[in-house]
Amino acid sequence: MLGNSHPDLSLQCGDCPIRHRAVCARCDEDELDQLEEIKYYRSFEAGQTIVWSGDRMDFVGSVVTGIATLTQTMEDGRTQMVGLLLPSDFVGRPGRAMAAYDVVATTDLVMCCFRKKPFEDMMLHTPRIAQRLLEMTLDELDAAREWMLVLGRKTAREKIASLLAIIGRRDASLKVSAGAGQMVFDLPLTREAMADYLGLTLETVSRQISSLKRDGVIELAGKRHVTIPDFDRLLEEAGDDNDGGLVA
Amino acid sequence: MLGNSHPDLSLQCGDCPIRHRAVCARCDEDELDQLEEIKYYRSFEAGQTIVWSGDRMDFVGSVVTGIATLTQTMEDGRTQMVGLLLPSDFVGRPGRAMAAYDVVATTDLVMCCFRKKPFEDMMLHTPRIAQRLLEMTLDELDAAREWMLVLGRKTAREKIASLLAIIGRRDASLKVSAGAGQMVFDLPLTREAMADYLGLTLETVSRQISSLKRDGVIELAGKRHVTIPDFDRLLEEAGDDNDGGLVA
DNA sequence: ACGCGAGATTGATCTGGGTCAAGGAGCGCC
DNA sequence: GGCGCTCCTTGACCCAGATCAATCTCGCGT
Q1: Residue numbers of A between 206 and 245 with CB closer than 8 Å to B
Q2: Which nucleotides of C are covered by protein (CB under 7 A)?
Q3: Is the CB of B77 under 7 A from strand D?
Q4: If you ran DSSP here, which 8-state letter would residue B9 be given?
Q5: Residue A222 in contact with residue A206, Cβ under 8 Å?
Q6: Tens digit of pLDDT for each residue in B111-144?
Q7: B105 CA → D12 C1’, Å
Q8: SS3 B199
Q9: Labelling B115: which of A41, A97, A169, A244 has CA 20 to 30 A away?
Q10: CA angle at residue A245 from A89 to A214, to 5 degrees?
Q11: Residue nearest the C1' of D27 (CA based)
Q12: Cα–Cα dist A127/B130, whole Å
C-alpha cells in the first residue's frame, strides 16, 4: 500500500505520509527533522481497539495503512460511528488529555504517532503545522456536517449509495483509478460497521445492497469486492446533485 | 444582552465578545488593536439570509446577539440544519472563498465581522489567533459528532430532549442561571427549524413536545417560553449518561 | 375589539425501516 | 474434507415516525 502512487498526493515519497500530507505539507527541513525525532510507529491488528473513549491519550498521529473507525456508544449499547479514518487521516486532539471516542482498527493497521506534548510544543513554534492542522480540522468538520445531512434526511438506499460514493472516491484517490468511469474497490467495513456509520441496522444495509445490485447500480464479487460501473449513477442514487465535498 | 454578565466568559467587558472569547482569549494589546482595525458590525433581521450556500464570502466573524442557523438543502427541498450559532459562536472558514451552507438569522442579529483577507494575514503572524481558532474548530467538530449520534441513533423524544438540553445549557451559560436546578429560557427556533435540526417533521416535534409537557419534564408558557424543572431528568430523557460535551 | 395569518396542535392513516427468526456462504482449522 | 464460526442474506411481521388533513391559538395591525 505504501508503494501506491498518485500524482496529487505525495504518499509514496519517504516512509510516512504524515510528513507530506497530514501535518507538514509546507514545512522546511529543520521542521521535518524535529518531527522525525518525536515520531514512532505502532501496529494494530484487525478488530483491536486503539483507544477507548475516556482513556488518557498521550499521542496524536495519522494512519499509514489500514482503516480505523471513530465510534460513540450510548450506555444501552446503541453505537454511532462518527468518523472513518483512511490512510493519511489524522487522529487525536491536541490540547485534550482524554479521548472522546473509541478508535478501532477494522483492518490490520499501521499508525505514525507523535508524542503529544512535544507535538504541541512544536505547534506553538511552527505556525505552519498549526495552520495545516486547522485546515484538516475544517475539512473534517465539513465532512461531519455533510454526514449530518446523510443521517438526518436521506433514505436507507441513499445512505448506502452515499457511503459507497465516499469510500469509492477516497479509495480511487489513493489508487490509480480504473479506466472509463468504472470504479473497483474492496469494502473495508462489515455490514454491521456500515450500519453503525449510517444509523441503520445491518439487515437494512444488507437488503439495500442487494437492491442496488439487483438494479445494476453496483456489482458484487463475494461480499466485499465492489464494482461501480457508473459513478454518476451512484451519485444520483445518493441524492447528491453536485459531486460535492464528501471526504470521509 | 450585551450587558449580561457571567464570570467564566468575559462577554461583558468591552463591546465585542470576539475580542475575549472567540479569537483573542490570550492576545496582547497590539494584537487586539490590529483586530480592532479590521472589525465592523452588521445587523440582520429575523428571517434574513446572511449568506447563501455557494456565494462568495469575504468575511469571517462571530455572533454578538441573536441566533443564526447553518443549513444544507438537497435539490428536492429536504433540509438539514448542521449548526446552530448562538452569541459568541464563530462563522466562516478562513482559506475558503465560497460558503458551504446557508447562514440564516432566525432572530434579529448583530454580527461582528472581520474582512477575510486581513484576518487571514493576521492569522499567519499571530499564532495565538490560529491556535484559538483551531481550538474552536475542534469544539465544533466534537459538537457535530455528538450530533451525529443524536441524528443516527436517538428516538424522536430523545432528540427533542437533547435539543432542549443544548439550548438550555448554552442559554444558561450566557445568563445568570435561575435558582435550584431550574432552568428557564425562550426557544429561539420554530417547530419547523427544530425539525430541520433533528431530522424529524414538525408534526413529530410538536407531538413530542406535548408529550414531554404532559409528563412534566418541561413546562410551557405560550409556544416558546420553556421551564425545565429538573435538568437531570431532561438529560435522562435525552439518553445522555454523562452530562458530556454537547456544545451546540 | 376584531379579524387575519403564521405557526402550532391533534387526529387518522400509511410505510420505511426495525425486529425477530431462520437459513446460507465462505473460510480457516483440525 | 468436513466442522464450526463469523458474517451475510432473506423472510415475516411490527411500530415509530411520516404523511395528509383539519382545526386551534395567539400575536398583531387596523
Answers
A1: 239, 241, 245
A2: 7-12, 16-21, 26-27
A3: no
A4: B
A5: no
A6: 989 899 988 888 888 777 788 888 889 999 999 9
A7: 49
A8: coil
A9: A244
A10: 95
A11: B222
A12: 8
A8-63 pLDDT per residue, tens: 222 323 344 444 444 554 455 666 667 777 888 999 999 999 999 999 999 998 88
Q: What does DSSP assign to residue A81?
A: E
Q: What is the rounded CA–CA span in Å between residue B50 and residue B44?
A: 7
Q: Quote the CA–CA distance of B224 and B201 in Å, as a whole number.
A: 18
- Tell me the three cell numbers of residue A88: 493519511
The count of other CB atoms within 10 Å of the CB of residue A95 is 11
CA distances from A151 to A163, A195, A209, B79 (A): 11, 11, 17, 12
What is the Cα A144 distance to its own chain's centre?
11
Interface of A with B in 137-196 (CB under 8 A): 137-138, 140-142, 144-149, 151-153
| Alpha carbons A243 and A232: distance in angstroms, whole number | 8
The three grid cell numbers given for residue A14, joined into one nine-digit string: 519517504
Q: Are A167 and A212 in contact (CB under 8 A)?
A: no
Q: Which residues in chain B are closer than 8 Å to A199, comparing Cβ atoms?
A: 151-153
DSSP single-letter state for residue B177: P
Dist CA A220 CA A185 (whole Å): 10
Which domains are present in chain A? 17-150 (2.60.120.10), 155-237 (1.10.10.10)
